[in-house]
Design goal:
- The chain is mainly α.
- It is 74% helix and 0% strand.
- The protein has 4 helices and no strands.
- The chain has helices at residues 8-21, 24-43, 47-51, 53-70.
- Helix 2 packs across helix 4 (53-70).
Length: 77
Amino acid sequence: MSTKTLSKEAEIGLMNFFNDRIDPLDMARAIRQVNLTLALGVLNDQENIQINAAKLGDSFYWLNELAEILDPYLDLE
């Protein structure tokens, strides 16, 4: 486990993200939905991914939003 601390910008971004954008419990559910769907998709030869495509899309959106707070990539010029 890393002992690295977050930058002040990342800390503020995370607080704003969870206060203004998505509830932490909903984020945890999104992460678990992605993990479950991808794991089952691999095990079941992609069938489960097609069935849960809408949920998976929402989960990927929130994971990308979180990733952008932690390590901005898409907003760089």
